[in-house]
Amino acid sequence: MRELTYVARRTVEWREAPDPRLRSDQEAIVAPVAATPCDVDSSILAGHGFIEPPFALGHECVARVVETGAAVTAVAPGDLVVVPWSINCGTCDRCRQSLTAHCASVPYMAMYGAPIGGSWGGLFSDLVRVPYADAMLVPLPAGLDPVAMASASDNWSLAWRLVAPHLKARPGARVLVVARGSIGLYVCDIARALGASEVLYVDPEPRHRALAEGFGAATAEALEPAPQGSFEIAVEATGRVDQLALTVKSLAPEGICESAGNHFRPGELPLLDMYLTGVTLRIARDNVRAHIPDALALAASGKVAPEKVVSDVIDWEDLPTALPEKHLKPVFVRAEA
């Protein structure tokens, strides 16, 4: 089989690898049919990552189950499934607490798309081994388009987690979104659908702002210092500490900020202001497996339109040339036999 391999800044190529084989009766082999780059993949391709190449890239996809072990009961060959980005067993103490990104049964940070906690390959591959199939794989609900849901492995489900639980606790809250990619746009869509009284989306890219306006958000090119009390909930997804600093300073007393940016560079936060305001800040590696069913259910409800964030639908064979190009949220699709 082939796996798409990141080899240098803005450079990826197909490399041959052995076909994955089942190593236990709890495993599955899947074939991605719709895969998309995560926002962090864009940073890696731009040369901002912290892992030296080469390595197999990709950790968001909908796949077709090809083969299952004898003990697998949740999915069967032929099923369409969402493949979570992190490797998790589903049975250890951490997994039972929904801390699936911190599974104690695998090396720390075990994941697809980067060789941090072992080498698990990437989801831009012709075939992928899933070690804990019943725990990891989530069947795609009937009627949902794999292209629209290609990001359910991470960004779509992460966006649900960033805002949905907070709006449940604070109905009608005002939401600030400071972003540079798909996560922020998904948050705008979800926040409006779940009853936010106001959503302000901040992004220097006019095309992104136009999409956010289509989701009912007000938009701005840059975040101006806001008076205290402007927003009860804020989401930062830029990877820039200066933008995170402005975001937390825009919060109302006891406001909540979720940071989904990958902060590869150091910076300073206004800690005294945050102390006086009583800010809650979470910068978290997402335990996405626990949120995928709820995020898929929202997508199936018809209240949201994640397909509008898909910027391009591109043939699988064009991955080496098209992935390094700048797209908001391209989805690479493979024709099935």
UniProtKB/TrEMBL annotation:
InterPro entries: ADH-like_N, GroES-like_sf, NAD(P)-bd_dom_sf
Top-level lineage group: Bacteria
Gene3D superfamilies cross-referenced by the UniProt entry: Medium-chain alcohol dehydrogenases, catalytic domain, NAD(P)-binding Rossmann-like Domain
Swiss-Prot/TrEMBL cofactor(s): Zn(2+)
Name by which UniProt lists this protein: Dehydrogenase
Keyword Cell membrane attributed: no
An example Gene Ontology molecular-function term: metal ion binding
Domain Alcohol dehydrogenase-like N-terminal residue range list: 25-140
Keywords from the named record: Metal-binding, Zinc
Pfam families hit by this protein: ADH_N
